[in-house]
Amino acid sequence: MRSRREKPIDFSSEEYREFVSKVKVEGAYFFIGAGFAKLLDFPLWYGLVNELVQYFWENRSQIKRKKLTFSHIESLKNNQRYAYVMDYLFSLNKELFYSGVEESLGKELKSEAKEKIYFLRKLCRARFPDKTPKYPILTTNLDTSIEKCFNISNVNYSQETFIDDVTSQIFYLHGRIHSQKCDDRDRRKDWILTQEDYLNQYLSEISKLNVFLQNIFNKKTVIFVGYGLKEFEILQAIAKRNSIAEKEFRIQHYAFQAIYKLNENEVEVNEKVLKDRFNIHLLKFGIELSGWDGLMHNFSYLVDAICDEEYPEPGDSKSEQ
Question: Rounded to two decimals, what is the model's pTM?
């Protein structure tokens, strides 16, 4: 039987013509979230927490301050206050916490996962005439799947240096796993995983990460991919910029949004709030038949629409030195 798929977003249609033209000329930032990483076999937030809990159980002999029992571990797995569980594990044994995160998020991409994101090669090579990236990637994911797949060297994972950086292709907003420049232990300070990390980086008015995001949302179109937009941290950066800009001068942003029968009413409410309050327009696509792979399909269609030029391979004489 032939597999059925929903009709994809037609980015060549009149409805999206102005959006695509603007992005092709002015560029845009792509905000990659955990939903994207999940399709590459990395865990979502709750999955990471459960993997960490299991990791602590398997390495419980290293925990000196408290004797973990099976019942204790099972209660942690069933605790849906994931941030609290994350903080609890961090307080039990910091080194074990770090090594567990590295084991969960530092794994190599499988060949089928690499094939899923091969279309991004055009996005990562696109440049303005001054050789700066046309479509930089912002991500809260710690995994380095895109970076490794396309051998990208111009990445930034230190929040302290984001603001003046116009040359990086990928900005790891919450830090990253594996560094080619220094030992991971030296970069763990950039990881944002515990509640204290979030409070320090997002609630402080002078936080360089906060200032960086506000500047991005004020100047450039941002397109969210696999990001749920339920966290206040990112929305507050948009809201702060919108509060000082007249409505007609606010930058429009976009977010891919999956649609299926059980979430139609929720999406209808969210769509109005996101558009009215944060100037975020939804790029809706169905997944009732195709499942979550529909995100990758429609993302690839947008990349094809905005990257209609051929870019040289990394290392080619025409590529950026």
Answer: 0.89
**CA 266 – CA 315 distance, rounded (Å):** 47
Residue 240: per-residue pLDDT: 75
Q: What is the C-alpha to C-alpha distance for residues 53 and 46, in angstroms, rounded to an integer?
A: 11
Give just the sign of the alpha carbon dihedral 195, 198, 200, 202.
Answer: negative
Determine contact, residues 102/55, Cβ cutoff 8 Å: no
Say what angle helices 264-278 and 232-243 make with each other, to 10 degrees: 40
For the chain, what are the domain ranges?
Answer: 14-42+111-306, 45-105
Beta-bridge partner residues of 254: 223, 281
Average pLDDT over residues 111-124: 92
User: Measured between alpha carbons, how far is 70 from 79 in angstroms, rounded to an integer?
Assistant: 14
Is the confidence at residue 317, as pLDDT, over 50?
no
Judge residue 321's burial from the number of C-beta atoms within 10 Å of its C-beta, 0-12 exposed, 13-18 middle, 19 or more buried: exposed
Separation CA 316–CA 321 (nearest Å): 9
CA 235 – CA 237 distance, rounded (Å): 5
Q: Output the pLDDT for position 234.
A: 87
Distance CA 91, CA 277 (A): 38
| pLDDT for the residue 2 | 36
